[in-house]
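Input C-alpha cells:
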C-alpha cells in the first residue's frame, strides 16, 4: 500500500461509526465516506454520485455485466446479445458465460489481433448485423496479462449511436494510464483499490447517471440500492488516498515505469535471445501498452518452472495462466492472440510498480539465464512425458 493509503486506513480503523448511523460517530464516518467518494470521482473523471463502492474489481465487473444485461433485457426481451472481447479477465469472461448458461444471453466473442488489441472491424460488423439485439458491449481498458491498451473510445463511438451501453474493466488501467470516465462515454467502469496502492477488499463501479442497472446484491439499499452492505469507511478512505496520489503523479510515474520497462525488455532479450515479447512493443511509451507490464514467451520452457526458479532467485513473476484443479492451462489471452498451446506454455509476465528500481530490473536480468536454462530442461522433460502419456491414451 502507498504511504498515504496506509496512513488513512490506520487512522480510520482506530475510530468507530457506521456511516449509515445517525449519531455523531456515524455522521463523522459518513463524511469520510463522502469525501472519499469525491476524491475517487475526481481521480477518475466522474461525478461523486456515479461512484458505487464494492468489494473489488470482480464484484464491480459482475454488477456491471449482470446489471446491464438484466436491466436492458427487461426493457426489451429481444436484447440478449453480449459482445465481449476474447481477452477479458475471468471476472468478466465467466460472468458473461454464466449469463449465457443460466439467463438466456447470447455471447458474440470479438477477436483480437496478434498484439491483443480488439478488432474494431469485427465489433463494427457485429453491431451493424442487428444493433437492437445487443444488451451490452464489454471491453477491458488494458489487459492484465500482456498489457495491451484497448481502443475503448473507438468501441464506444461504434456503440453509442445505437444507444448500446459499453462496460470497461479498468482495473489494470486506472492510475497507470489516463482514465477519464466522463470523456470516455462509457456506461460503467470497474476499478479496484489493491491494484493502485490501496487495500485489498474494496473497489468501485462507476455508473453513468442515466444508466439503469439491476442490483445483484440486495439488503439495506446502500449505494443507490445498487450495492447493499455496510460501507467500509477505512478502506474507502485508503482507496481514495491511493487514487488521489496515483492520479496526481500519473504522467511522471508512467514515464519512469516505461523507461524501466523498456530497459527490462532490452535486458531480457539480450540475456535470452530466443525470448519473444508479447503484445505491443510501445518503445518510448506511445500509450499502447501499460507502462509497468512486460510479457514474454520462452520457447521450450515451462512457464511454471521459470516462475519457481526465479522465485528462488528472489524475483517474483507470473505465468498469467489459470490453474484449474491443479492442472495448468495455457492462457486464453495468448491463445486468442494466435499463440499455439505449446508457445503459450512458456509464458512469463513481469510487472513493475511504484517501488521498482533500476537495480530490481538488473537483478531480474542477472537471474534469468540460470532460471531459463533450468526451466528449459523442465520443459523438455514435460514434453517427453506428454508424448508418452499421449501414447498410452491417458490424459493428464
Ligand atoms: N479485472 C482485471 C483486469 C484484473 O487484473 C483483476 C485482478 O487481477 C480483476 C479484474 C479482479 O479484481 P479484484 O482482485 O479486485 O477482484
Amino acid at each position: 500500500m502507498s504511504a498515504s493509503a496506509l496512513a488513512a486506513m490506520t487512522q480510520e480503523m482506530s475510530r468507530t461509526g457506521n456511516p449509515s448511523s445517525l449519531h455523531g460517530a456515524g455522521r463523522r464516518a459518513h463524511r469520510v465516506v463522502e469525501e472519499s467518494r469525491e476524491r475517487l470521482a475526481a481521480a477518475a473523471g466522474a461525478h461523486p454520485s456515479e461512484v458505487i463502492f464494492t468489494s473489488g474489481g470482480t464484484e464491480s465487473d459482475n454488477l456491471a455485466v449482470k446489471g446491464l444485461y438484466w436491466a436492458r433485457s427487461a426493457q426489451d426481451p429481444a436484447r440478449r446479445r453480449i459482445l465481449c472481447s476474447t481477452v477479458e479477465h475471468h471476472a468478466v469472461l465467466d460472468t458473461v458465460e454464466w449469463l449465457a448458461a443460466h439467463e438466456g444471453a447470447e455471447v458474440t466473442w470479438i477477436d483480437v489481433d496478434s498484439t491483443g488489441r480488439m478488432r474494431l472491424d469485427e465489433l463494427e460488423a457485429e453491431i451493424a448485423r442487428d444493433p437492437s439485439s445487443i444488451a451490452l458491449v464489454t471491453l477491458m481498458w488494458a489487459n492484465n496479462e500482456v498489457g495491451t491498451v484497448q481502443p475503448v473510445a473507438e468501441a464506444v463511438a461504434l456503440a453509442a449511436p445505437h444507444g448500446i451501453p459499453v462496460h470497461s474493466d479498468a482495473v489494470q488501467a486506472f492510475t497507470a494510464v489516463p482514465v477519464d470516465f466522463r470523456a470516455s462515454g462509457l456506461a460503467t467502469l470497474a476499478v479496484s483499490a489493491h491494484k493502485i496502492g490501496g487495500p485489498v477488499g474494496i473497489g468501485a463501479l462507476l455508473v453513468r447517471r442515466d444508466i439503469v442497472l439491476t442490483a445483484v446484491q440486495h439488503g439495506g439499499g446502500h449505494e443507490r440500492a445498487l450495492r447493499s452492505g455496510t460501507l467500509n469507511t477505512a478502506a474507502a478512505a485508503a482507496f481514495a488516498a491511493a487514487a488521489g496520489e496515483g492520479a496526481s503523479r500519473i504522467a511522471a510515474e508512467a514515464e519512469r515505469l516505461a523507461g524501466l520497462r523498456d530497459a527490462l525488455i532490452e535486458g531480457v532479450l539480450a540475456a535470452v535471445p530466443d525470448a519473444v515479447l508479447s503484445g505491443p512493443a510501445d518503445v518510448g511509451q506511445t500509450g499502447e501498452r501499460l507502462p509497468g507490464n512486460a510479457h514474454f514467451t520462452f520457447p521450450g520452457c515451462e512457464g511454471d518452472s521459470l516462475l519457481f526458479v526465479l522465485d528462488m532467485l528472489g524475483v517474483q513473476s507470473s505465468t498469467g495462466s489459470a490453474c484449474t484443479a491443479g492442472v495448468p492451462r495455457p492462457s486464453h489471452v495468448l491463445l486468442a492472440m494466435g499463440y499455439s498451446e505449446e508457445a503459450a506454455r512458456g509464458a512469463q509476465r513481469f510487472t513493475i510498480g511504484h517501488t521498482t528500481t533500476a537495480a530490481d530490473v538488473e537483478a531480474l536480468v542477472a537471474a534469468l539465464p540460470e532460471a531459463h536454462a533450468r526451466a528449459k530442461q523442465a520443459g523438455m522433460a514435460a514434453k517427453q512425458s506428454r508424448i508418452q502419456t499421449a501414447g498410452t491414451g491417458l490424459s493428464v
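The chain has a mean pLDDT of 94. The CA atoms of residues 187 and 210 lie 8 Å apart.
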